Amino acid sequence: MKCLICESVLITVSVSVSGVHVLQEVNGVEWDDETEEVKGFSQFGYDGEDLLELDPKTSTWIALRPEAVIAKPIWEDDKELGKEFKIFLTQIFPEQLKQYVKYGRSSLLRTELPSVSLLQKTPSSPVSCLATGFYPHRASLVWRKDGEELHEEVDHGEILPNHDGTFQMSVDLKLSSVTPEDWTRYDCVFQLSGVKEEIITKLEKDRIRTNEVKPSNMTVPVTAAVVVLALILIGAAGFIIYKKKKGEREKENISPL
């Protein structure tokens, strides 16, 4: 991973003859924590245009515009100035950068992989591949066909923040040109910066979450329960009628004394 630290100085110079001018100075260092390579840089700008740039390897200045040619030998003859820049770019800035990375490693180097879902409003709507819960925001989400990234028939959404500090993003695939037989040729691929592994989600019917209302699996059990209850009630009513009629017959068969 490459880390960068910069120090920017803005100096406004007022000249009574020609007005106000701006001199800008940017110093920084880039550190590759895998190879331990350190690259320092120092640049000057004048009125929004490049002026001078330091070559850290030779400690010489490069004139980036004709007006700077006269300043180049003057600055290079100033040994104390060159020594000061060298100390900052090779010692002070690299040590500061390494300390910043050390103290902020938990946040600077934090990575979280997302959960990926396939969503669809209706059977004719595009299939949306949603990745949510990833960190940092440097990530890509694409649809592929036969391993090749699609640039047509897709619609990329913006990277949006979640309430917990993570991010989410989505990409839609239009199904107008996709036949059911070709579904298995498509997949959604998420790639997080700094993480080698990809998250691949195949375009399959069973993976898609939709708003379409499906018949409930409880229909058959509920129907059976209603039928059983009806049979119980019919049986109970029949038993009551039978007992009533039996009692009437017994009364009729009793002879008076």
UniProtKB/TrEMBL annotation:
Residues 114-201 form the Ig-like domain. GO terms for cellular component: external side of plasma membrane; extracellular space. Residues 1-19 form the signal peptide. Pfam families: C1-set (PF07654), MHC_I (PF00129). PROSITE patterns: IG_LIKE (PS50835). It comes from the Eukaryota. The chain crosses the membrane at residues 218-242. This is Ig-like domain-containing protein. It comes from Sparus aurata.
